[in-house]
Every structure is written in structure tokens, then in C-alpha cells.
């Protein structure tokens, strides 16, 4: 059935292409020799199977060669406390790399009641013999081999793809514990390879779990423990080419395994960008963005994934789904792109995407504004949204996060710079009367035409002034955004010293923002106390995106679990209560992280019983045998 | 089943509301008397059943009292040729009303080879006895009556709702011919009435066809002739209240039967607008916009319907579908709003919508630009799109439409104004060397903050100048937009004199715009010749919306059918060929008119076999007995 459909899909396209070309041919002058055959030749990129020799893939097949097997990001980059008790960040990849962060220790110990004497190191090496032997479907493996598709059932490769980055997943890995892991990993090189793999999976009844960047924080990648069939991790990382850039239409057609940093880097070489910059962009993939309805930092200019996508191809057990044209906007029934976006790996594998691209901005400018309190800051962001003059990015952090950000300041070599810092601090607190325990900071990023940026900047700062906001310089802004990429490494540091934590997010109408921030943070603190947490938790938030009708609010929650027998269970109870609180206060189930398995229980409340039925009916049609069995969403 | 589901839906909401309130109550200070019960009371608007006495509904139940039964729009407004052979427009509703249009006759006769001597008047009165007696489901009617819901099986009411405004539909009516018509018309007053009607329809197995503005041009409203059950037209026009305006979140919660002109008028009273202005806005309804993925003239500022909608309620045979919150943007699986939008009446009835509203613009300014030729005009629009500086509206018409617009100029009373016109013409043609048979015009509308509008205007005219464009004044722009609302009345005039025609549209990537315009217009002319049309047709287009990745192109096609035995059939063949040509050239099946029954045959090519299967699976789940049996889309 699958093979007919896939084959049918391809010959369908061939037939339609041929029809179209013959119609267009009617307009062309016929060549003198009477030959008027126009053939619909298959695109070169389709045919090419060979890896380009010598071309380094950013994401190697054996990811564990560059990335941590039990924590976030690159192996060569991590926080640690040196002999002097100062925090350092290793490696050479980040602006923070090789620098000393003198204030982190005091902040860490003070905030969590932690001590550098109380250590909880991770299991350093993956013990392969602790991993279940693979449950291979031999017939499937044979056919994959014959098809020339690379594969592995090596324990390290399988463990690497058995998880995302939820707390419980990383905690377990650090303990050297493994649940159900994939039995096989396959690396398709192009769309046609994926068609073949899906065909074979249907034929032999194996469970396929697509794997892009592996950055899920919704337990989406967890292998269902009840799955008895062979589980195959379909790793898209080698399917990462930009097939073409269309400068006339400002689009690019890209294979879905490409990761954000590569997509931008490659487009930049031609003077373009997508501008899609989720915090996970170093590792997350285009296919993953489509599957999870990703949002990017600069969505105010470039849009979220649903605004960026012009065309998508997804391979399903029923065949390939794709629209028949690249029109910018259509009314052709319910938009099937929206059946694909958000499907979280339950319906098929996204293989190729046409995305909008933009010329790279001429000019970029960071900024920051200090507000006397969070309420004023939110009111300012609401006004900026109402006037529809938001910069590329504008984020407001609460007082806790301001202090957190302050603690992450690298040691400055210049006496002058720290003198300036001191001056600023004096000015803001003593002279302007801002209470250091109530003030909060908004970070801003403007980009575009230089003149327009400066005009725009003035407009935003004028609005900020109406709400008691004080411009606090580019440095603070730039640092705020730079820290975005290293924050995830901090959790691993925390977990070395009994501190566990997570971020979670929501979207909410404007008039609910303050209540949600206050109530959720208060609820977290109450629940921690109730559940016996010995130390006050970190419970903090920021308004991280603005929209016409509301905002995205991002929470950090972390605590010192020393003295608890089952810290992960306590964590999960508190997180659950926090989500109940969010929903009660009018917030959504998720702005961009998605549902996965972590938030399934609230799906009915979120989309209604009829909505659930619709989603289920699509799943039952597209994938009746649950080949795409990650069991997300429903 | 349906009654359980609907009842279940309502008690679901009650239960969830109660849960949420009790959670929030945890944060409130308890009153001294210890009473802490917070009750989830049903919204007042829900309970209210009575019509407000004396409140005029813009759309009366008996629509034929104000609107034509066999043509477009208001009965009191029509074009006609007076004794002197000058065109006039009757009534008092429009700017054009009561004015003489001296140039129209010559243009009409010249363009179509028509003659005012050759008349084909419409059947003036509806012959009720020519209408089939209603096929009533007596049990259904009884229960509707007991529920207190107004209904009618009067022939006039039924015929009125048996059609949209496709050419073949109006042509038939003018001949006094009727196909299958609804057997009963019902007028729900609110969401709960709709729930009751759908429940009863499922119980008694009647076919429900939702009826909003009746402006469909996709044969969506046509009653399927093979339908043997009783067909009930569910007219939403009396369900048209703004339930609340939320100034904090800039949203309004509105009943879906409201028509565009009322929605804007009522919001304007509070200083707001939605800014959604489809050409049909005098008559089309909010529910219809949602069901067909409508687009509005000023989408560059306000967005299309998918950008405007924050929350939707739709009543289906399985129950009510609606999301659980009003967050501005979410990642909670595939977006179920996109299963509703574009469903074209096949899944249920949209009853209430939360839409974004904006403060009314401070300032509005029209404009126009003359280009030496269409190619330059398109290149200019493409550049404006690339720089992302499009005005609220920018439209480029081809030379034919420019001449058409010119022919619609009302007689000017002022000698000075016609002197100015003459001067402009001289300047443009003789002085600047524009060829009157190649030049074309773009009309523009700016709105917003006055200072910004003037800046914006300068930016756009500067770009236009790079492409040889010459500013041609506000009047031409304003007139272009004003004509938008009277164009539909012109077809009725044409049909009085052997001329039939239609508009159709597409969306297409930028690099295909010129080819599509040229090829489709040429194809129309060729096909007309092939099919024996005796006179050259009008075959004209305009670029009517710009997007990042392409544009919307709108075609007018009309011809003199004198001498043809089956003019509608010839028309349909040419339209079919035009759509094939559009698709072959990379255009979409529709930008905003939708699919209905008219374009079903191309759905598979449009969304692929798997996409069709997804849509069908949703339909089969939501409406297994095809209660919503208009047979659109699939």
C-alpha cells in the first residue's frame, strides 16, 4: 500500500508536470525542425545520491563525537567552578568561552542554598553494556542495507537518539539509566531515501521516530516503553542541502535535516537569511521546526514558522503530501500545511521545505531599558505592541532574571568598563531612585535600514520613557541575547551541585500577563514548600514575545533538591501544578515548545473533544498502523 | 449522539470553567464571612433570546424586500441606459448613485460589439408556482417550531437562498429557471439555537446548508440536485450581535451572522475597526469569511481572515469545536482553526468569532500612479513588496481596465475639473510620451498616523519613479476603490444586452506574474474564438494584492454571446480552460474565492492525494451522515 502510494505520488507529479508543460508549450514558438517535445525531467537534486566528497557535515552521523551524550550542546563547552571558586566556560565556540564569570558562585549559592562542596557529578562514560541489545527487524535491516542507506545499531548511536532535553531525560542519563531506546538508527540522504525507508517500515511494521536536532523539551523523542516492534530512529541530519535559492521570489528550497546555524550561514554567503533564530538554532532542524510550530527570536520581522513556510513535502505511510503550487496565500479548503505543522512526528517525515528568505539586514543595533518595576515594563511592551512598532526582538525580564543576568557578567579586563558599570548602577539606583529589588530590564534588537532603525529606536525609547523606562545601553542588550545560547549549558552546571530546573512557556492575552506571572511564580513557591523542598526555589519569568492580542511568557524554575529522595518526581508535580495554574489564568498549553507526551493530558481542554477527534481522524487515515509511533499529542 | 455531544460540550465548558475559577480563587483573599464560593455563571449574552425590540436588522429575514432576487445587491441600485443612451446608476446608496456616466455606452458597445437595441432583459418577477413544492421533514419542522426558532417554506425565501453569484446561477434566475432549492429556511438567533438546529438535523437526517451573505462565486450554495433529504437553509443573518469589545486585548467577540458593513459601522462607533474589507463586505458575513478563508482589501495592515481570528466556535454534528483559550499564538499540535477555516460549510456552522480590532486610523490618503506599461508596473509592485513598504492597499490594473475605469467616470459638473483632466491626459500622453494603449494605473490607499502616512507615501512614489511611474493624483485612486463596490452591479447591466462575464482570481509567485497575465488572457481569447464566440471578448487583469513570495491576480472575462445557442456552456468551457492555464503557469486554484463545487476537480492536484485523504477523514469523523451536505470541496 505504501509503495503504491509513494510510487503513485511520484508518477502523479510526473504526469501533472507533463500536462502543465504541454499547456505552456502551446505558447512557445515551435522550433523550425518541428520538434516540440518538452519533457518533464526530474530535478537534478533528486537524482544525486552521493555525499559530496570532503564536505564536512556540521552534524556528523556519530554526534557523540562533538556533542555531549548526557547534557546540552558541544562536548568542548561547559561551565565549571575553578579552584578559586570562579565560574568558567570552556572551549572556543562562544563569546563567553574562556572567560571567567566571577559573580556566578555567590549568586548560585545564594539563590539555591547550594554549596560547591555538595557535588552530584554525572556518570562520565556511557556504559554500553547497560543498554538493552537492539530488537532488530532483520528483514527491514536487510532491505535498508540493499537500498544503500547508512544505518547503525551501535549502543552509543541508539542512546544518543533516545531522548530530548527534558529534565527527567537528562537526569536519568546522568545517572547512567536508560529506558527504551531505538533499536536502529538510519541516515537517509535525501527525500527519496525517506520514501524508501517509510515504504519499508510499513512493509515490515517497524516503528519510525523522526529525529532532527534532538532538542525537544516535551518528551517528544522518548521511546514509548510499551512499543514491542523494532524502533527505528530516522536521523535527518545528513539530508541537509539547500537545493536552490530563488532570488526572484525570495525563497529557498531546503532539505529538512539542515540545522539553523547552517541554514543561516549558507544563506548569508549569498547575502540572504531566513531570520528564523530559535534559541536552539545551533542544533534544531528545519523539519523539527515545521513539526513543532517553532518560533524564532526575531519573529517580529521574519515571522514564525507558519509565516515562513511556502511549501512543504512530507512522506507519510499513505504517500507524499505536498501542495501543487507555491502561491503565497490560497483558499483551497482547509490549509493542509496546518495539518503538517504541529504534527510532532506522528504523521510522517518532513523532507523538503520552501522557505521565505530576506536580504540580510544592513544594520543591527541592540539596546536595553531599565524599568522601575515589572508592571511598568509590561505596560510598555503592551503599548509597543499596540502601536505595532516592536523591534526585531523585545524581551522583558523580571527582577530575578535581571540579577541572574548580572551574575553572568564575565570578568572585565578594563578598569574603565567596570567604572562605567559602577557609574550606571549609581545613576540608576541612587540618582533615579530605582529599587534594585524591583527594577527589571528589557533587551531590544533592531535591524534593517540604518536610518529606519535609528528612527524606530527613538520611537520605542520614547514610549519606554512614558512608562518610567530608562535607556541602559547597547551592551546590556547585546549581552542578554548572547547569553541566550549559553543558558542551556547552565543547567548542566546546576545539576553538578544538586540543583535541577527547567524552562516552560505559554502565550496569553495581554490583560492576563501580570496575573499569570504573579500567580504562576507564587504557585511554584507554594508547591515546592508543600512537597518538602528544603530551599527556596528560583521562580522567575520574562515576557519574550509580543503580539497584537497577547504575549509569550517564559518561566524558569529551579531548586536545590538535597534532602529529597525522589527529586524528579517532586519536580514533575510542581511543573504539573504550574501548568494547571497557567491554564486557569487563561494561558495556552504552549506557545512554541509543543505538546509531545509531556502535555498530552491537557489536549482535550485545549482543542475540545471535537478537535481531538479531528486530529485523531487524520492520524488514523494517514498512519493506520501507527508506524510513526512516538505517541505524541493524542 | 449529537445531543449528547452538544450537551457534553456545554457541560464540559462549565466544568472546566469551574475548575479554573477554583484555582484562581486560591489566590484571592477570603471575605470575612467565610463565603468563598465562586460560581461559573453562564454569560448573559448566551441567555438572551429576545430580539431587541425596534432594532433594525440590516439584513431582514425577507431579504427580497431590499435585495434583488435575480441579480446583485440592493433592489434600488442598478445601472441602466437612459433615453439619451447615457448610463445612470439608480438609488441613493452609493457615491455613484444618481450620477450620469456618459462614457459607458461607447465603451460598452465598442468593447463588446454590443448594441443597446439588442436586449435580453431578465424575468422581472419570481414565478412562485414554477418552484417545486418544499420537501419537508415534518418531524424536524415540528421540533424547530417548538424550539421557537423562526422558519419559512415560502417559495421566495427558498429561491433566494438557493444560489450564490456565479454566472450560471444568475443567468438561470434571469431566465426564471430554478434547480434544486432549499425546502426550508431557518433563522437561528444565537449560538444555542444553532446547537439545537444541528441536533435536530442529525436526529431527523435533514441536509443543512449554512447561508451567510449569499455572495459565493464558487457554486458553494448550489443545492446538490441528487440530495433526496429535506434541504434546510440555515440563515445566520439574525445572529449578528457584537457580544463584547475587549479594549485591553483589542479584540471583539462577534456572532458570525454579522455582515461586513455592520461590523465596521458598529465598531467605528467605539473608535475601532477590524479593517477587513472584502469587495463583498456590504453583504458577506463573518461566518462566511471564516468558512472560505476570505481576504480583505487592506490586508497589508489588518491581515487576512487567518491573521484576524483569535478564537472560533463552530457547531458540528459531533459537538462544538473551540479552543480552550485566547492565546495569540500556540503550538498545541496542528492548528484546529485551520480545519475550520476553508471548510466551506461542509463541517458545521461557525457561530461566534473573536477577532482582532484596531483603533480607527487617524488619516487616510488615496493615490494613483501611471506606468508606461504593465511590465514596469508589476516590477514596481514587486519592489514595493520586497522593501516591505506596501500601503494599506496597492493594485495595478492593466491597460484594458484603465480604459474601463475611465469609461465609468461620472459626468463632472465642473468645467474646471474636466479641464484639469484634459491637462493631465495631455501631460501623460503627449508630454511624457506614454502610449495610451499600453499605459496602466496603480491605485493606492495609505492609512495611519498622518506623519507616517506622508513619509510612507513618499517612499512608495520614489520607488514608483524608478520604474517610470508618474503620480496621477488622489482622485483617480479614490475613484478606483469606490468603483469596487459598484462593479458587481455592472454585470447585471451587461446581461441586459447579451453580455455575460465573470471574475476569477489566483495567487502566484512573483516570477510567474507576467507570464500568467499574458498567457491566461491570450488563452481566453483563443478559446472564445475556438468556441464560436462572434465578438472579441473582454480579457483583462489586475495585480490586486502583494505578498513576500508572490501576488494575487484578478481576471475579468466577459463577451457578447449573441449568436450562440448555449452561451453559459461556452462560458464554462472558456473558464475551465483559463483555470487550466492558470495552474499550468504556476498559479493556485484560488487566492480567496474558494473551491465550492466549481473547482472540486482540481483539488487532488492542489493538495495531493494524501491531502485529500486528510480532508476526507476529518469530514467523515465530524459529519459521518453528511448532514452538512452542500458537497463542496471533496
Overall description:
The structure is a homodimer of 634-residue chains. By secondary structure, the first copy, chain A, is an alpha+beta fold. Among the domains of chain A are: 242-359, Uridine Diphospho-n-acetylenolpyruvylglucosamine Reductase, domain 3; 498-594, GMP Synthetase, Chain A, domain 3. Helix content of chain A is 37%, strand content 18%. Chain A has 21 helices and 21 strands. Chain A has a seven-stranded antiparallel beta sheet, with helices on both faces. Chain A has a five-stranded antiparallel beta sheet with strand order 8-9-13-11-12. In chain A, a hairpin with a 3-residue loop joins strand 20 and strand 21 (550-560). Chains A and B meet through helix 1, strand 12, helix 12, strand 19 and strand 21 of A and helix 1, strand 12, helix 12, strand 19 and strand 21 of B.
Write the layout of secondary structure elements.
The structure is a homodimer of 634-residue chains.
Chain A: H1 2-25, H2 44-47, E1 79-81, E2 87-89, E3 100-101, H3 104-112, H4 138-146, E4 151-152, H5 155-160, H6 167-174, E5 184-186, H7 191-204, E6 207-211, E7 231-235, E8 242-246, E9 251-255, H8 260-269, E10 272-273, H9 286-292, H10 299-302, H11 305-308, E11 309-316, E12 319-321, H12 337-340, E13 349-356, E14 358-359, E15 363-371, H13 374-386, E16 393-397, H14 399-407, H15 415-431, E17 440-448, H16 450-466, E18 470-471, H17 474-484, H18 487-495, E19 499-509, H19 513-530, E20 538-546, E21 550-560, H20 567-584, H21 603-622
Parallel strand pairs in A: 5-7, 6-7
Antiparallel strand pairs in A: 1-2, 2-3, 4-5, 8-9, 9-13, 10-14, 11-12, 11-13, 15-17, 15-18, 16-17, 16-20, 19-21, 20-21
Helix pairs in contact in A: 4-7, 13-16, 19-20
Amino acid at each position: 500500500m505504501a509503495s503504491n502510494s509513494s510510487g503513485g505520488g511520484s508518477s502523479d507529479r510526473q504526469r501533472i508536470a507533463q500536462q502543465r508543460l504541454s499547456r505552456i508549450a502551446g505558447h512557445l514558438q515551435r522550433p523550425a525542425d518541428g520538434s516540440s517535445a518538452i519533457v518533464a525531467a526530474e530535478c537534478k537534486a533528486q537524482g544525486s545520491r552521493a555525499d559530496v566528497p570532503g564536505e564536512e557535515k556540521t552534524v556528523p552521523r556519530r554526534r557523540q563525537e562533538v556533542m555531549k551524550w548526557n547534557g546540552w550542546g558541544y562536548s568542548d563547552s561547559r561551565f565549571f567552578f575553578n579552584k578559586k571558586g570562579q565560574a568558567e566556560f570552556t572551549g572556543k565556540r562562544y563569546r563567553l568561552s574562556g572567560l571567567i564569570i566571577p559573580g556566578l558562585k555567590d549568586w548560585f549559592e545564594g539563590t539555591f542554598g547550594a554549596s560547591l562542596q555538595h557535588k552530584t557529578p554525572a556518570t562520565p562514560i556511557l556504559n554500553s553494556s547497560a543498554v538493552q541489545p537492539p530488537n532488530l527487524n532483520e528483514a527491514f535491516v536487510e532491505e535498508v542495507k540493499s537500498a544503500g542507506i547508512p544505518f547503525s545499531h551501535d549502543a552509543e548511536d541508539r542512546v544518543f537518539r533516545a531522548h530530548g532535553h527534558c529534565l527527567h531525560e537528562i537526569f536519568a542519563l546522568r545517572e547512567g539509566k536508560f529506558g527504551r531506546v531505538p533499536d536502529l538508527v538510519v541516515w537517509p540522504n535525501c527525500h527519496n531515501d525517506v520514501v524508501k525507508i517509510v515504504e519499508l517500515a510499513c512493509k515490515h511494521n517497524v516503528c519510525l521516530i523522526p529525529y532532527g536536532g534532538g532538542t525537544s523539551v516535551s518528551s517528544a523523542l522518548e521511546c514509548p516503553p510499551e512499543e514491542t516492534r523494532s524502533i527505528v530512529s530516522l536521523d535527518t541530519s545528513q539530508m541537509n542541502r539547500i537545493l536552490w535559492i530563488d532570488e526572484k521570489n525570495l525563497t529557498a528550497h531546503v532539505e529538512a535535516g539542515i540545522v539553523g546555524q547552517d541554514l543561516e550561514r549558507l544563506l548569508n554567503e549569498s547575502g540572504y537569511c531566513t531570520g528564523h533564530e530559535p534559541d536552539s538554532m545551533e542544533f534544531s532542524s528545519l523539519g523539527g521546526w515545521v513539526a513543532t510550530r517553532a518560533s524564532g527570536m526575531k519573529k517580529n520581522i521574519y515571522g514564525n514558522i507558519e509565516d515562513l513556510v511556502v511549501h512543504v513535502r512530507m512522506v507519510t505511510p499513505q504517500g507524499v503530501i505536498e501542495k501543487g503550487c507555491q502561491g503565497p496565500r490560497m483558499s483551497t479548503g482547509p490549509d493542509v500545511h496546518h495539518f503538517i505543522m504541529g504534527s510532532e512526528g506522528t504523521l510522517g517525515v518532513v523532507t523538503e521545505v520552501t522557505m521565505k528568505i530576506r536580504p540580510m539586514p544592513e544594520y543591527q543595533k541592540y539596546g536595553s531599558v531599565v524599568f522601575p518595576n515589572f508592571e511598568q515594563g509590561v505596560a510598555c511592551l503592551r503599548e509597543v505592541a499596540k502601536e505595532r512598532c516592536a523591534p526585531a526582538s523585545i524581551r522583558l525580564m523580571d527582577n530575578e532574571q535581571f540579577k541572574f543576568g548580572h551574575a553572568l557578567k564575565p570578568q572585565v579586563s578594563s578598569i574603565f568598563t567596570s567604572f562605567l558599570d559602577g557609574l550606571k548602577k549609581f545613576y540608576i539606583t541612587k540618582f533615579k531612585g530605582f529599587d534594585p529589588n524591583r527594577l527589571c530590564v528589557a533587551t531590544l534588537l533592531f535591524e534593517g535600514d540604518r536610518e529606519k532603525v535609528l528612527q524606530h529606536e527613538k520611537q520605542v525609547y520614547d514610549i519606554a520613557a512614558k512608562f518610567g523606562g530608562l535607556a541602559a545601553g547597547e551592551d546590556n542588550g547585546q549581552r542578554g541575547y548572547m547569553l541566550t545560547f549559553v543558558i542551556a549549558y547552565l543547567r548542566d552546571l546546576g545539576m553538578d551541585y544538586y540543583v535541577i530546573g527547567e524552562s516552560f512557556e505559554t502565550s496569553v492575552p495581554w490583560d492576563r500577563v501580570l496575573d499569570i506571572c504573579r500567580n504562576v511564580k507564587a504557585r511554584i513557591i507554594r508547591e515546592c514548600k508543600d512537597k518538602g523542598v528544603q530551599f527556596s526555589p528560583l521562580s522567575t519569568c520574562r515576557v519574550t514575545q509580543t503580539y497584537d492580542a497577547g504575549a509569550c511568557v517564559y518561566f524558569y524554575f529551579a531548586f536545590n533538591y538535597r534532602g529529597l529522595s525522589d527529586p524528579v518526581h517532586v519536580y514533575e508535580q510542581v511543573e504539573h501544578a504550574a501548568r494547571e495554574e497557567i491554564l486557569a489564568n487563561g494561558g495556552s498549553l504552549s506557545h512554541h515548545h509543543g505538546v509531545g507526551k509531556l502535555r498530552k493530558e491537557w489536549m482535550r481542554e485545549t482543542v475540545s473533544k471535537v478537535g481531538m477527534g479531528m486530529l485523531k481522524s487524520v492520524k488514523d487515515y494517514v498512519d493506520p498502523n501507527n508506524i510513526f509511533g512516538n505517541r505524541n499529542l493524542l
